[in-house]
Protein 1
Amino acid sequence: MRRCKIIPKPPQEAALTFRRRKAGLKEIEILQKINLADPEDKKHMIRLERHFEHKGHLCMVFENLSINLREVLKKFGRDVGINLRAVRAYAQQMFLGLSLLRKCNILHADLKPDNILVSISLHCQ
């Protein structure tokens, strides 16, 4: 993922990723299903903002999340681990997200700290 600035009013930051067309279309279908199942954005799942094609690649624009869980662990838990309250909060948020995936009959096959994104306020997505 790459961070970018969207210029139209008002300017905002977003995350941008590129996929091959076929794989990207399937990912968009899954993300749209998740977004529809959580219209109030309470289940801590990343939001797909929009998508477009560029030079044969599918580009997906996501809400901007600043850091992944592995980076959080390195930054805040070096040599000692992170606070138990933080572990509980992250676990609760992940279980909410996983319950939404189950409701949508979606299996996440690559769940790891690198794929768990954290917002500036340190909430999992």
Protein 2
Amino acid sequence: MAQIDLSNYNLGELKGLQFDVEKELKERQRHDLRKAREQVMAIVQEAGMSVDELLAERNKDNAAGKAAGRGRPKKAGPEA
């Protein structure tokens, strides 16, 4: 990446640059999220299911794991 000499910028210019950078970062994050969403949708559709079906399966797996771990906690230490 090119090195930028910021020492010649005044405070107002630096704040303007900071604003522009933060704005661009937010836009790129939105773009990347939109692109990832499109990729996920394509994979889900290719598999012949909906996102709701996919998430429902994940929620079932999570619920089953939590239910299996329930029960009375075991005592620590030797039995007296």
Protein 3
Amino acid sequence: MKKTKPKKLQKVKTGVVIKDKMAKAISVECEVTVKHPVFYKYIRKQTVYKVHDEDNKAKTGDMVKITETRPISKTKRWRLVEVLRKGQKGGSP
């Protein structure tokens, strides 16, 4: 019987598109709240990911779902799964 390795679960995150000017790529900001170890106050932490967007579907301000994938370029390790909600047209610059 051939033993197979169990497939590693891919991380899935949701975030907001902050840049969409690159070719087939977007920048997505994901926010998470963590509790401070000493002061027990909740802190918001933001992380920006470079995401592969093959069809250039996502625009600035959109809420998107991304998943971890193999390295596509020097900085891109995430790919776009779906656009959850469209952003507003006249957002702040």
